[in-house]
Amino acid sequence: MKPDSRLLEKLVVARYRLHQAKASVGVGDRQSSAKGAGMEFASHRPYREGDDVRNLDPRLMARLGEPFVREYFVDRQLPVYVILDGSASMQQGKPGKFETAAMLAQVLGFVALASGDQVRIGVTGNAAVDWSPRLQGQSRADMLFDWVGGRRIGGKTSFSTALRQARGVLTQAALVILISDFMDEGVERELKLLTEGRHDMIAIHMASPQEIDPSALGGGPVTLRDAESGEAIDMSLNPTIVARYREVFSRWQSTLRDTMTRAQGRYFFLSSSADLEQFISRDLRGRNVFA
Amino acid sequence: MTVISTLKPADGRGEPRMDREALDTLLKSLRDARSEIGRVVLGQHEIVEQLLIGLIAGGHVLLEGPPGAGKTLLVKTLADVTGLSFSRVQFTPDLMPADITGSLVLTPDGAGHDVLKFQPGPIFTQLLLADEINRATPRTQSALLEAMQERTVSAAGTSMKLPQPFCVLATQNPIEMEGTYSLPEAQIDRFMFRIDVGYPSAETLASILHATTGAEQPVARRILTPEEILSIQALVRTVPIAEHVRNAVALFALATQPGAKEASKDVQRFVRFGLSPRGAQALVMAAKAHALLAGRYNVAIEDIRAVLMPALRHRVQLNFEGSAEGVSLEGLISKLFEHSVKAAS
Questions:
Q1: H or E stretch including B127?
Q2: Which residue of A has its CA nearest to B92?
Q3: pTM higher than the cut 0.95
Q4: Cβ pair A137:B138 closer than 8 A
Q5: 3-state secondary structure of A208
Q6: Which of A27, A83, A230, B261, CA to CA, is 20 to 30 A from B105?
Q7: Binary contact (B103, A54; C-beta < 8 A)
Q8: What does DSSP say about strands B127-131 and B167-172: parallel, antiparallel, or unpaired?
Q9: Degrees to nearest 5, angle at CA A271 with A267 and A275
Q10: pLDDT tens-digit series, residues A182-199
Q11: B17 band by pLDDT with thresholds 50, 70 and 90
C-alpha cells in the first residue's frame, strides 16, 4: 500500500529541520561543516602543496604577496534513518499498528527524498535489522514504497536488541526516526545510548485503540498474552484495574517523553486509528519536524 | 556569406520584403546542414531537425537519454557543421560556478607588477555543451541561468556579453539514474526544447556499427557560418503568425495552468505546473523556425503541433495524483491543444 498521492503532493517542498545533526553524506544542498568545493565561503588559509589552484584568492595574493586559498563549506545530504518496528507486537490491535506505522515510514522517507536528503529505512523484528538501500532523489519514491511494502514482519526480536544493532550502522550524526510501540523493557536504556551519537532523534510511539483504552474490551476474566515471548497473564478486568492501567500507561509515555527530551529529541504519540494526514500536518509540521 | 540586410521593413503593413534568392540560399544551407549532421549521426532525423530548430529559433536545448545514445556526438557534429565556437563542460558534483563562468587571476603586467585579470570560463563560446548537467547540484546548475536568459555573465563585479549566437546544449541522464539531481523549474524553463534521445533500432545500430568501427570515422563538413546562423535567427523572428494561431497558443497556455480559470478539471487535478509565458514564447518561436525549415513563410497550426511535445514535455509537470492515475502527459497536452485550436478558430 502506498501513501495517498494528494498527501505526497503537499509534502513535495517539505524539508526536515535540524537541531544538532549535520548534513554529512553525498552531495546535496545542505551546508555541512566539511570544507571543499562549495558555494558558501568559510575561511582563508595559507596555500599548501596539493591544494586546488582554482581556490587561490588572487585579491589576497595581490595584497599580501603570499598565496592563500579560499575554503568553502561543502553542500551535502542529511542522512535520514527511519527505524520501523516490525516485531509481532506491532501486528496487534485493530487497526494494526504496523500498517499505520509502515505508511508513516513511507511518508517520512518520502520527505527526505523530496528535499534532496539520503534515506534508509530499517525494519526490525527479525534476527537482524532489515535495511533498505540508501536512497536519494524523489524519483526513488516508488522504490522506497515498494521496499517497505515488501517486508516480512512479525519476528520476535525485541526493539531494544534492534536498536543495539542499529547503533553500529548509525556512525554519523543523522536524523533518526523511530516508529515503534516501544513494548520492551530495555528500550529506554537503548534510547539513551542512541542519543549519545549526537543524532536528531524523533520517537513516534504507536499504540492501538485497545491498548490506549482497554475498557472497550469489556469486563471479566481475560488472558493477556505477549505476542513476542508468548508469556500469558490471567486477570480480571474491572474499572479499578483499567484505571490503574491508564495510570501506568500514562507514566510510561512520560518516561519515554522525558528520555527523548533530555537528549533534545522529540516524542510523539500516535494511535493506529488516528488520521495520518492530520498527524503529519498538525503534530509533525506543527512542531517543526519539517517546514 | 548571406546577410540579413536583404530583408527590408514592411510597406507599412509589418510584413518584410526579402530577396528571394538570398532566402533560398540560406534555407538551402540550412537543409544541407541537416543532411550533413544526418550523415554522421545516423538514424536520428527527427532529433537533428529539432536540434536545428532550437538553434535557429535562438533557444537552448536539453537532450535527455541514457549514456551512450549519441547525445554528445550530436552536439559536437552540430558545432562542426555550423562552425560555431564550441566548449564542453562536464558537470560533476564538485563543479563550481566559477569553473563555468571564469574567475580572476593574477598576471604579470610586463612592468614588474601583478594585475588582476578576468580569465573567461568555458561559457564564453557560441555553442556550450553542458554534458550531464544533472550530475551537478541545482545550485551549480543555476550558474547558467543568467547566461541562458540574458546572454551575459556577471563576474568580477562586471557584466560581460557572451558571443553571438549563444546556445546551450545540455545533456542529462534520466533522473531515475543514481547520482542525478532534478533541474530546478526556473532552470528547466529556460530550455526551449527537451529532446528525448533513445537507443536506435537494430537496423540503425547495425549501420552505426559499420560506420564507426572501421579505420575511418565519418567527419562532418562545415556547411554554415556563425553569421549565417545569426541571419537565419533574425529571419525566423520575421515569420508572420496569424492572429487565430497566436490566440490558440495563448488559450492553450492558460488551459495548461492548474490555477487558471480556463483550466479543465483534469488539469486542476493532475497538473503541478503548466506552460509559462516564456514557454508560450518558446512554442511560437520554435513553430516559426519549423515553418521556415519546411520552406514556408508563415506559421500554421501544423507547425505548432510539430514542436508541441519537445517544447512542453519538460515544462508541464504531472503531480503525484496524475502519475499515480497513469495520466498520459502527451495525451493531455494534445487534447488541450486541439481544444484550444477549436476555441480560437
A1: strand B127-131
A2: A27
A3: no
A4: no
A5: coil
A6: A27
A7: yes
A8: parallel
A9: 105
A10: 988 888 888 888 878 789
A11: low
Cα(B169)–Cα(B54) distance, rounded to whole angstroms?
Answer: 9
Interface residue A61 vs chain B (CB under 8 A): yes
Contact status of A2 with chain B (Cβ, < 8 Å)? yes
Bridge partners, A79 (sequence order): A118
Place of cell 530550455: B191
- When CB atoms are compared, the residue of A38, A59, A140 closest to B116 is A59
A60 to chain B, any CB pair closer than 8 A? The answer is: no
Residue pair A257/A191 in contact by the 8 Å Cβ criterion: no
Place of cell 553542458: B130
- Write out the three cell numbers for A24: 554529512
Handedness of CA A276, A278, A281, A285 (dihedral sign): negative
Sign of CA dihedral A153, A157, A158, A162: negative
Could you report how far apart the first and last alpha carbons of chain B are, in Å? Answer: 41
- pLDDT higher than threshold 80 for residue B15: no
- Torsions phi, psi for B99 (to 5 deg): -70, -20
Number of A–B residue contacts, CB under 8 Å: 61
Check CB contact under 8 Å for A137 and B182. Answer: yes
Q: How far apart, in whole angstroms, are the C-alpha atoms of residue A279 and residue A269?
A: 9
Q: What residues in B contact A54, CB-CB < 8 Å?
A: 96, 98-99, 103
Mutation pick from B113, B137, B182 vs chain A, by most beta carbons of A within 10 Å, is B137
